[in-house]
Design a protein that fits this description.
By secondary structure, the chain is mostly helical. Helices cover 60% and strands 3% of the residues. The termini are far apart. Bound molecules: Sampatrilat-Asp and zinc ion. Zinc ion binds next to α14.
Length: 595
């Protein structure tokens, strides 16, 4: 019996080694393409896609054979069975020609997005940093409309047909592997141990909707005051006025909606510039915080090979990302970093991925991923919640220590702070929810290509209370204007992350001995807090995520109690401010071309 167990163990070890080589090949080819977008690198990436698809197919068949055969029953410990089940979760197409076509379409979609530029008076505007800055800083509705519409004009229409074909290949690959469609594959591969992810997500949204609608009503009132002939006192908010190309993060209109302007906290962005913060010093600051709670320093290869600023003279994918090369200590971040508090948060987000990569690097390859995909997204943001507190920013001298402030002034400063966090965190929730709401229905064939854009705007209205500022039609393909659709990156993980990051934060604050309002907690230098996270991160996907959640928070499920506790002081204030407002919006009116 022993040599049966031995041979089975050896076979599993070999499979993990082969999988590691596949991931490494894909990571290097992907990195080379995304940091130097040329036809040659696109071609190489597609070819690697074909080569690794062959190897993946072999592993899938090997795993299925091992799972089926009886002779191995006695040697398949629960852990081995779990590994094999994860090996078998895949949606790889069966034949090379289809793989090649799917890869080519994927690269073409990403190239359109990453190289799209808007031309005006002979000047070319990229999404980052130019159009992003217009959306963040302009207070001219016409200029905002120009940026908003132009970006969609240079991305969506060119993608639409390609995306339709790409979806067909995704679904074919899923069905070739026993799934009904690509949505079922995506849900299972990101959230196993979750009986009904969509039902859970819908319930979580219903719990948070009232809180979001209070923010929406307040922001609509303030935007009506700022743009009386563009924003109504009731109904949905036009999508171009929220400080962000997708209206997914409203922090850039903080100065338009700040509750107590005279109590506004120090301008961090200005302070960073005047203190001559550099991109490098922002990364060092983030690394220092992670290390202060017992997490890991960045590796030497990280500093040598990351791409942290937009390079001159070549096309790159500026959308931030963190990459695990499954090769020794090679972990990198790619981002076109600017000096601002928004970028500082993104640096912590991306470094959170790197910390996770490092924490589980000694696990078998199949386990070298998040306990579920939301865990991976929540690490960096949880740390950011601590870093961006007034308390921590005073510790690092980004906010000057002030003489004692009165109790009343302190309350006002807290409301201002919570408003700023709500513009980032609460504004995102319905957006994080609706992206894959749309995509799952597209993969399931319930949203037809002839309805792609109408369905998109119906969901934007239903969940975000946002409406297009100019008429849309099926000649547009507005989902293509959002990175994750052409790049086919999952999104429901962010919706869930924005809820569990408050559970993680709450648990770490308690472990650090914090007392007082949750939102003021800074667990800087608390190894008790860091150990909670780090020990669970080390397991990767070895532990089913309910066990991982319990190890950090004591709860086995995703709950909105922590985010509700965090924003409780603001909710009370909003309800008072909104006592004469009509909360919500009617779902009837999307701004769409009537056929
Ligand atoms: C090899 C690979 O692909 N790696 C994955 C990570 C992994 O799977 O290991 C990866 O790097 N993905 C890129 C993606 C980038 C960002 C993003 O796209 N964010 C969402 C939503 C959001 C917004 C605010 C926020 O605070 C948190 C999330 C958006 O901007 O809409 C952009 C800046 C923030 C995170 C990321 O880091 O998640
Ligand atoms: Zn992320």
């Amino acid at each position: 019996i022993d040599e049966v167990i031995q041979s089975c163990r050896q076979e599993l070890a070999d499979m993990n080694k082969e999988l590691g080589d596949i991931y490494a090949q894909q990571a290097y080819a992907g990195w080379n393409y995304r940091t130097n977008i040329t036809n040659e690198n696109a071609d190489k990436l597609s070819q690697v896609g074909v080569d690794t698809a062959r190897l993946t197919r072999k592993l899938i068949n090997q795993a299925r054979k091992l799972l089926k055969e009886d002779k191995h029953q006695q040697c398949l410990s629960p852990d081995m069975k779990r590994q094999l089940a994860l090996f078998a979760q895949d949606a790889t197409l069966k034949n090379d020609m289809d793989v090649r076509r799917q890869e080519d379409l994927h690269q073409e979609l990403q190239k359109i997005y990453s190289t799209a530029k808007v031309e005006r008076d002979g000047i070319f505007y990229s999404l980052e940093p130019q159009l992003t800055e217009v959306m963040a800083k302009s207070r001219e509705p016409d200029e905002l409309l120009w940026a908003w519409k132009s970006w969609r004009d240079v991305t969506g229409p060119a993608m639409k047909r390609k995306y339709e074909e790409y979806v067909r290949y995704l679904n074919e690959g899923a069905m070739d592997n026993g799934y009904q469609n690509y949505a079922e594959y995506w849900i299972e591969s990101q959230f196993d141990n979750t009986p009904d992810l969509e039902k859970m997500a819908e319930e979580l949204w219903e719990e948070l909707k009232p809180l979001y609608q209070q923010l929406h009503a307040y922001v609509r009132r303030r935007l009506h005051n700022a743009y009386p002939d563009v924003v109504g006192e009731t109904g949905a908010i036009p999508a171009h006025l929220l400080g962000n190309m997708w209206a997914q993060n409203w922090e850039n209109i903080y100065d338009l909606v700040v509750p107590y302007p005279y109590a506004k906290e120090h301008d961090i962005d200005k302070e960073m510039l005047s203190q001559k913060y550099t991109v490098e010093s922002m990364f060092k600051m983030a690394e220092h915080f992670f290390m202060s709670i017992g997490l890991y320093p960045m590796t030497q290869t990280f500093w040598q090979k990351s791409m942290i600023v937009k390079p001159e003279g070549r096309e790159v994918q500026c959308h931030a990302s963190a990459e695990d090369f499954y090769t020794e200590d090679d972990f990198r971040i790619k981002m076109c970093t600017g000096v601002s508090s928004e970028y500082l948060e993104t640096v912590h987000h991306e470094m959170g991925h790197i910390e996770y990569f490092m924490a589980y690097e000694d696990q078998p390859t199949i386990y070298r991923t998040g306990a579920n995909s939301a865990f991976h997204e929540a690490i960096g943001d949880t740390i950011s919640l601590s870093v961006m507190t007034t308390k921590h920013l005073k510790t690092v001298n980004l906010i000057p220590e002030k003489a004692h402030v009165s109790e009343a002034r302190n309350k006002e400063e807290n409301i201002n702070y919570l408003m700023k966090k709500a513009l980032i965190k609460l504004a995102f929730i319905p957006f994080g929810y609706m992206i894959d709401k749309w995509r799952f229905e597209v993969f399931r064939g319930r949203i037809k290509p002839s309805d792609y854009n109408r369905a998109w705007w119906e969901l934007r209205l239903k969940y975000q209370g946002i409406v297009a500022p100019v008429q849309r039609s099926e000649d547009d393909f507005d989902p293509g204007s959002k990175f994750h659709v052409p790049s086919n990156s999952p999104y429901i993980c962010y919706f869930v992350s924005f809820i569990i990051q408050f559970q993680f934060y709450d648990a770490m604050c308690q472990a650090s001995g914090h007392t007082g309002d949750l939102h003021t907690c800074d667990f800087y230098q608390s190894h008790a807090a860091g150990t909670l996270l780090r020990d669970v991160m080390a397991f990767g996907k070895k532990k089913p995520w309910p066990d991982a959640m319990e190890a950090i928070t004591g709860q086995r499920s995703i709950k909105t109690s922590a985010i509700n506790e965090y924003f409780a002081p603001l909710l009370e204030w909003l309800q008072e401010q909104n006592r004469n407002e009509i909360i919500g919006w009617d779902d009837a009116t999307i701004n769409f071309e009537t056929k």
